[in-house]
Structures are given as C-alpha cells and as structure tokens.
Design brief:
Elements (H helix, E strand, L loop, with lengths): L2 H39 L4 E4 L3 H14 L11 E3 L4 H10 L7 H7 L5 E5 L6 H12 L3 E6 L4 H6 L5 E4 L5 H24 L3
Parallel strand pairs: 1-2, 1-3, 3-4, 4-5
Helix pairs in contact: 1-7, 2-7, 4-5
Length: 196
C-alpha cells in the first residue's frame, strides 16, 4: 500500500467534492444564514444536534457563534444539545436514546428559534425526532445532510432549509459539512456587521 498516494487521493476527492458542491449548496447556505440572522434579530437562539462527528460539528458551530468566528462581535445565542451528559444519559436511560434531542427541543425551543439538524445519512432517528419536535414548537429547521437527504429531507417543510451534500462517503460529506458551517458563520458575520 502506498500511503502517500492514498493520502493524496483523499485530498483530491475532498477538493473535487467541495468544488462540485459549490453551485448546489451556495443558495441553501445563503438562505440558512439569512434565516439565522433573522432568528438572532428576534432574540431567538439556535439549537444544534447530531451524532458522532455531527455532534462535534454541532458543538463546533455553537462555539463559533457563542464566542466569535473571525471577527470580534457580541456572542450569539446557540446551544449544542449534545454536550450535557447528565441530560443525555437520563433521557436515554428513563425513556429512549431516540428522544435525547427531541425532549430538549420541546423544553428549550420556542417559535422564534431554529433547529440545526445534522446527519450525514439524513436517517438518524434521534435527529428526525428533534425535527418533529421543532415543527411542533413552530420552529424552523436548517437540515445539514448528505446522500439523498434521507428521511430528514422528506419531512422538511417549505419553511425549512435543506443543505444536502451530493455525495455518499460519510467522511467526504462531513468535510463539506464543516466548510458549510464555516460559510454560515462567515455569512452571519457579514450580514450582522456589514462586511463586504
């Protein structure tokens, strides 16, 4: 096995997918950023969830909003629903792991808030349950998926925004998810701070 060639191939695949996705995702990312800014201007917050690498993405995005991205600005209200181990384990133990995010959405979410729902397959049952809970709370949803969007893509309403990476490899989808989240952070800052 030639590791250098394999590593080079991973870089090449990632770069090609990002360029291939640019035209398809720029519009939904811009729409999502505008919805997020509207949310903040109404004193709303963003609740973010996902599993595994997508949980890390939810936490990464929340940190960029609460602290700062690349420019100084006041913190923006964002909560990763993946970080409170006492809450996660009590819900999973007393009820079901499928409810670890939806119970939090119902308790914390309001109509002026948004849910950022992340799943590479679009089929994570606990993220799907969180979307259902968000809709019950009259919250908008920003869905970040891959493949064909899975069940999440099917349940979104015209009031929601779907950012679906046109790929099947989980690793490649996650790489584009991270770029998309950074684009969202940059666009939010531009819209709020008036950056050209």
């Amino acid at each position: 096995m030639d590791l250098i060639s394999r590593i080079s191939e991973n870089f090449s695949e990632s770069a090609h997918l990002k360029l291939q996705s640019m035209d398809a995702l720029a519009g939904p990312i811009a729409a999502a950023a505008e919805r997020m800014v509207q949310c903040f201007k109404r004193d709303g917050k963003i609740l973010a969830c996902g599993n595994g690498g997508s949980a890390a993405d939810a936490q990464h995005f929340s940190a960029e909003l609460l602290n700062r991205f690349e420019m100084e600005r006041p913190g923006l209200a964002a909560i990763a629903l993946t970080t409170d181990t006492s809450t996660l384990t009590s819900i999973a133990n007393d009820y079901d792991f499928e409810q670890v995010f939806s119970k939090q959405v119902r308790a914390l979410g309001h109509a002026e808030d948004l849910l950022l729902a992340i799943s590479t397959s679009g089929n994570s049952r606990n993220v799907i349950a969180a979307i259902q809970a968000a809709h019950e709370c009259q919250m908008g949803v920003i869905a970040l998926t891959g493949k064909n969007g899975g069940k999440m893509g099917e349940m979104l309403t015209p009031n929601d925004v779907h950012i679906c990476v046109p790929a099947t490899s989980t690793a490649r989808i996650q790489e584009v998810h991270l770029l998309s989240l950074h684009c969202l952070c940059d666009a939010i800052d531009c819209l709020l701070l008036g950056v050209e």
